[in-house]
């Protein structure tokens, strides 16, 4: 269960009505969804860590990505990114090739197996989520969809990093 620290400014709006109260409730739901997502991904073969899956997705979204760009996208150091790619390459999910215009630059590409693993994970996650959504009332599913669309839009307008609750 997630509890946000700091003064709760919701009291002026009434208990359970302000953004901090909503944030606490949504944080719990997100943790539940994260667990569902993780468990569904672990059913794939080979079983990959979340970092490995993120790396595969990043390369799938930007074929030819280089190691530096991958490290930046994943917010990890170059040595960690290199070891991550070593493991994915050894598993036959990723391949490294030279850049067509710069022999010094290495490009990353998914193999057919890498694309199949990502497809399998996406299918498993969709199936697990559909099972949960199937247990919800149609009105609740529609409200969730609208709420998530609004959250997505608001996130695009919000600052990249949340403000420090202590005002620092």
How does this structure look, described?
With 168 residues, the protein is mostly helical. The chain is 60% helix and 7% strand. It has a domain at 47-157: Orthogonal Bundle (Arc Repressor Mutant, subunit A). The chain is built from six helices and three strands. A hairpin with a 7-residue loop joins β2 (94-98) and β3. The longest helix has 24 residues, at 19-42.
Helix-strand layout with pairing:
Elements: H1 19-42, H2 50-61, E1 65-66, H3 67-74, H4 78-90, E2 94-98, E3 106-110, H5 112-134, H6 138-157
Helix pairs in contact: 1-5, 3-4
List the main descriptive attributes of the protein structure presented here.
168 residues, Arc Repressor Mutant, subunit A, mainly alpha, three-stranded antiparallel beta sheet
